[in-house]
Amino acid sequence: MITVNGKARDHADGLDLPALLGEAGVGPDSRGIAVAINGTVVPRARWAERAIADGDAIEIVKVLQGG
Amino acid sequence: MAEDLFRIAGKAFTSRLFLGTAGYPNQQVFLDSLAASGAEVVTVSIRRVDMEGGAEGILDLVRDRAWLLPNTAGCATVKDAVLTAQLAREALDTSWIKLELIGDRETLYPDVEQLVTAAAQLVDDGFTVLPYCTDDPIVCRRLADVGCAAVMPLGAPIGTGLGILNPYNIEMICARSAVPVILDAGVGTASDAALAMELGCDAVLLNTAVSKSTDPVRMAAAMGHAVIAGRLARLAGRIPKRTRAEASSPELGLIGG
């Protein structure tokens, strides 16, 4: 199991970060997106090489309206 | 008149109005409000992508129009606020953060103990930290002491539009602060923004007062004018208050004497 944006889910073997981001419509060039795994930000330059491991807690965020 | 620039962490701004981006009837009204206000800084939030609903945010709308100040709105722990700030830095390529650490969802009052802790951590991590804080001179001093680039005391609770509930505190904070003071939260109408500037604030941050007004574009223009008027009045130096009348017309040469 992994947790993505607070929701627990199953994951296929070999799932990597780009594939997971793709589910959310996020590509390598998407602007205003950031990712953290287990409380640490994964810089965009390292998205491609980041594998997903069982138990990972992943946060995928974007820029929204705010005060 | 010489240009009256306002600087935070070395970055100069002409406008002393910061505008929030939330709650407008639609995007066009927001864009028109931003233009009418003259604001050069806008606040944005960082939120989870909806895994089913796509990742569109508002970045494309604002990135070429204003200096972006991401916030940690809604965070209730140091850990969440720090991670949100780090995510904002990655998403927006900025080290600036409006640090909000909310102690209570009903009052939305800052948790000052956690706020100072988070501010110190973020300063150490290289952030330019602008903390939303209580209107308490000691809290503001502690935030400046840990390296915040400005302090942002509240005029009244977020979204209330009650104006500046304790103008004496805001004036005292402005008089004592080693860093710029930005009044954040509580502004309801233009006179509140003008008063903040008259009390000595360096800038005013507001959102709901514009976005939820009947005519946001017109209110945005009013806020822009109010901040300019208040700043000019502050620089001009108001007359002392007195309790007895004093004639302004000459008293000599009055007919019928």
Automatic annotation (TrEMBL), chain A:
Alphabetical list of InterPro entries matching this protein: Beta-grasp_dom_sf, Mopterin_synth/thiamin_S_b, Thi_S, ThiS/MoaD-like
Pfam families to which the protein is assigned, alphabetical: ThiS (PF02597)
Highest taxon, organism lineage: Bacteria
Listed CDD domains: Ubl_ThiS (cd00565)
Protein name (Swiss-Prot/TrEMBL): Sulfur carrier protein ThiS
Organism taxonomic ancestry: Bacteria, Pseudomonadati, Pseudomonadota, Alphaproteobacteria, Rhodospirillales
Automatic annotation (TrEMBL), chain B:
Pathway linked to the protein: Cofactor biosynthesis; thiamine diphosphate biosynthesis
GO molecular-function term, one example from the UniProt record: thiazole synthase activity
Active site: 98 (schiff-base intermediate with dxp)
Keywords in alphabetical order: Cytoplasm, Schiff base, Thiamine biosynthesis, Transferase
Thiazole synthase ThiG domain residues: 8-250
Gene3D superfamilies from the UniProt entry: Aldolase class I
Reactions catalysed according to its record: [ThiS sulfur-carrier protein]-C-terminal-Gly-aminoethanethioate + 2-iminoacetate + 1-deoxy-D-xylulose 5-phosphate = [ThiS sulfur-carrier protein]-C-terminal Gly-Gly + 2-[(2R,5Z)-2-carboxy-4-methylthiazol-5(2H)-ylidene]ethyl phosphate + 2 H2O + H(+)
Pfam family, one: ThiG
Keyword Transferase set for record: yes
Keyword set includes Transferase: yes
Subcellular location: Cytoplasm
InterPro entries for this protein: Aldolase_TIM, Thiazole_synthase_ThiG, ThiG
GO BP terms: thiamine diphosphate biosynthetic process
Binding residue positions for 1-deoxy-D-xylulose 5-phosphate: 159, 185-186, 207-208
EC nos: 2.8.1.10
Any one annotated GO CC term: cytoplasm
Quaternary organization: Homotetramer. Forms heterodimers with either ThiH or ThiS.
Family: Belongs to the ThiG family.
Function statement: Catalyzes the rearrangement of 1-deoxy-D-xylulose 5-phosphate (DXP) to produce the thiazole phosphate moiety of thiamine. Sulfur is provided by the thiocarboxylate moiety of the carrier protein ThiS. In vitro, sulfur can be provided by H(2)S.
Protein name: Thiazole synthase
Organism annotation: Nitrospirillum amazonense
